[in-house]
Amino acid sequence: MKKRNCFIGQSGGPTVAINASLAGIIHACKESQQFEHVYGMVNGIMGLLESRYIDLLELFDNQEHLDQLMHSPAMYLGSCRYKLPHFQDDPQTYERLFHTFQQLNITDFYYIGGNDSMDTVAKLSAYANTIQSSIRFVGIPKTIDNDLMGTDHTPGFGSAAKYVATSMLEIAYDSSIYKLDAVTIVEIMGRNAGWLTAASALARTQCNEAPDLIYLPEVPFSTEKFLDDIREVFRHKKNIIIAVSEGIKNENGEYLDSDSKYTKRDAFGHVLHSGTGKVLESLVYQEFKCKVRSIELNVLQRCAMHIASKVDLEESFQIGEAAVQASMAGQTGIMMTFERLQNQPYQIKCSYQDVLKIANLEQRIPVEWINDAHNDITPELYNYLIPLIQGEVTVQFENGIPCYSNISHLRYK
């Protein structure tokens, strides 16, 4: 039987779980005993265009190395932010790529990423169809934003949500020690979809009700109502903690730092663009003259392996394995998906959809999962989120810090 050869790439922003999907693909390829070479693109499709790739079967030749990869954050293969042109506009790029595929006898192509990555899978699959290539193209989802269509949730989101909830709980404990009027604003990633910010509600326990207010980009944000909400919370407690998505916009669809009434300006009157949290911090201080602090979680919420969700890593590994099974069964032009079967007990299954129905679309929180006051989430959203952060991951340490996979191949001058 003719041996198979595949390419694997990673693209877009990093997550805790993307390497778990990579490990799942490598593991399934080895277990099948049908793959002679499993090549990893260094820096995604851009690296492939520059003929930069490594043989992953040689590097991950035992279970110990594969386990270490599964428990390493960010992207082992590196990433890129490259939007593949349409082949009608740039046929030479496709000819170069498929020439490489032909030289290496590639039979399968796996690309792990978000929306732009699924766009790449769709375009390569379409071009393969026009030239009658038999290569199978499969997308594996990942994004902490949880905004890919067609899947119940995305690998990487559960761990980021666990980090957000944990950080929110720790901020609440830190803020509770003083008896004074105070507002803490926590800015969380999410330009258009508020899934991560919604996950801050998972921090609520029997002794902690923070965050007291949650603001998501799916609904318009009113600064006047925001101040009224704070004023109302101040009636029964002194210390207020607020979770806010970085992408909240006003009723006109404008980002908050474009509102000249609250934006800081330099000596020449030019707007100094700052984060949403900073804008709200200034607004709250002007109104209440109390202690106000804004905290931006930023990239910290993307790759915190020390607080990863076990469910997230196991599912990410599982969907990588399922991708290999799907391509070997003849599927192409698809994105792997999760289908939730039930919440209690939580159960999902791996499936797939036509990538053309997914690429360049965005899944946002259903408005009915946001409360009527637009400052909190509903129980339905909480019940959707809670299974995704379950379980803890054991991280190996060396000299007091985590011991992750060697990424010296990503060093560049």
TrEMBL record:
<keyword id="KW-0324">Glycolysis</keyword>
<keyword id="KW-0418">Kinase</keyword>
<feature type="domain" description="Phosphofructokinase">
    <location>
        <begin position="7"/>
        <end position="295"/>
    </location>
</feature>
<comment type="subunit">
    <text>Homodimer.</text>
</comment>
<dbReference type="GO" id="GO:0006002">
    <property type="term" value="P:fructose 6-phosphate metabolic process"/>
</dbReference>
<keyword id="KW-0808">Transferase</keyword>
<comment type="similarity">
    <text>Belongs to the phosphofructokinase type A (PFKA) family. PPi-dependent PFK group II subfamily. Clade 'B2' sub-subfamily.</text>
</comment>
<comment type="pathway">
    <text>Carbohydrate degradation; glycolysis; D-glyceraldehyde 3-phosphate and glycerone phosphate from D-glucose: step 3/4.</text>
</comment>
<protein>
    <recommendedName>
        <fullName>Pyrophosphate--fructose 6-phosphate 1-phosphotransferase</fullName>
        <ecNumber>2.7.1.90</ecNumber>
    </recommendedName>
</protein>
<dbReference type="InterPro" id="IPR035966">
    <property type="entry name" value="PKF_sf"/>
</dbReference>
<comment type="function">
    <text>Catalyzes the phosphorylation of D-fructose 6-phosphate, the first committing step of glycolysis. Uses inorganic phosphate (PPi) as phosphoryl donor instead of ATP like common ATP-dependent phosphofructokinases (ATP-PFKs), which renders the reaction reversible, and can thus function both in glycolysis and gluconeogenesis. Consistently, PPi-PFK can replace the enzymes of both the forward (ATP-PFK) and reverse (fructose-bisphosphatase (FBPase)) reactions.</text>
</comment>
<dbReference type="InterPro" id="IPR011404">
    <property type="entry name" value="PPi-PFK"/>
</dbReference>
<dbReference type="GO" id="GO:0005737">
    <property type="term" value="C:cytoplasm"/>
</dbReference>
<feature type="binding site">
    <location>
        <begin position="189"/>
        <end position="191"/>
    </location>
    <ligand>
        <name>substrate</name>
    </ligand>
</feature>
<dbReference type="GO" id="GO:0047334">
    <property type="term" value="F:diphosphate-fructose-6-phosphate 1-phosphotransferase activity"/>
</dbReference>
<dbReference type="InterPro" id="IPR022953">
    <property type="entry name" value="ATP_PFK"/>
</dbReference>
<keyword id="KW-0479">Metal-binding</keyword>
<dbReference type="Pfam" id="PF00365">
    <property type="entry name" value="PFK"/>
</dbReference>
<dbReference type="InterPro" id="IPR000023">
    <property type="entry name" value="Phosphofructokinase_dom"/>
</dbReference>
<feature type="site" description="Important for catalytic activity and substrate specificity; stabilizes the transition state when the phosphoryl donor is PPi; prevents ATP from binding by mimicking the alpha-phosphate group of ATP">
    <location>
        <position position="116"/>
    </location>
</feature>
<feature type="binding site">
    <location>
        <position position="246"/>
    </location>
    <ligand>
        <name>substrate</name>
    </ligand>
</feature>
<feature type="binding site">
    <location>
        <position position="13"/>
    </location>
    <ligand>
        <name>diphosphate</name>
    </ligand>
</feature>
<feature type="binding site">
    <location>
        <position position="115"/>
    </location>
    <ligand>
        <name>Mg(2+)</name>
    </ligand>
</feature>
<dbReference type="GO" id="GO:0046872">
    <property type="term" value="F:metal ion binding"/>
</dbReference>
<feature type="binding site">
    <location>
        <begin position="143"/>
        <end position="145"/>
    </location>
    <ligand>
        <name>substrate</name>
    </ligand>
</feature>
<dbReference type="GO" id="GO:0003872">
    <property type="term" value="F:6-phosphofructokinase activity"/>
</dbReference>
<dbReference type="InterPro" id="IPR050929">
    <property type="entry name" value="PFKA"/>
</dbReference>
<feature type="site" description="Important for catalytic activity; stabilizes the transition state when the phosphoryl donor is PPi">
    <location>
        <position position="142"/>
    </location>
</feature>
<feature type="active site" description="Proton acceptor">
    <location>
        <position position="145"/>
    </location>
</feature>
<keyword id="KW-0963">Cytoplasm</keyword>
<keyword id="KW-0460">Magnesium</keyword>
